[in-house]
Write a structure and sequence with these properties.
The protein has five helices and no strands. By secondary structure, the protein is an all-alpha fold. The chain has one domain. 22% of the residues are buried.
Length: 165
Amino acid sequence: MKRFLSFFLSLIPAVLCMILIFCLSSQTADVSSETSGGVIKNVLSLLPIGFERMTSERQAQLIESCQFVVRKGAHFSIYALLGILYIPPMHILFRQKKSAPFAAWILSFLYAISDEIHQKYVPGRSCELRDVIIDSAGAALGILIVCTIIGAVMERKQNQKERCL
């Protein structure tokens, strides 16, 4: 019972992340473009490039040219977070702890597929294999970073134990 409760509680952050992804994917193409365009405009305004002094036409061109990178970066980043958030519940679920990162990646990959299928039915959005690949790569990198950190911490603890003996 304790293991089930631990698993359930550790799954909550991943579920919240999935809800966020679903909500963002539910935005129509126009709303999504407005959202990412607004973020880009705010960031460009902070940079020392004279964004405010540009004509509105030039500002729009610059925002549009940044949108692809920002949107794909957002895909990559949110799935990196999702992959990381899947690690604790998978660690609890699997007795073979080495299976947890792979399971976390598989779940991220499957959610990326379901997210793209969902987007196919949202006005102006599409189902893109490229986005599944970007999402899966983000999850893999997030999981790899966490596993590397955990491995380094465990190695350091082991070295400290050996020095104490």
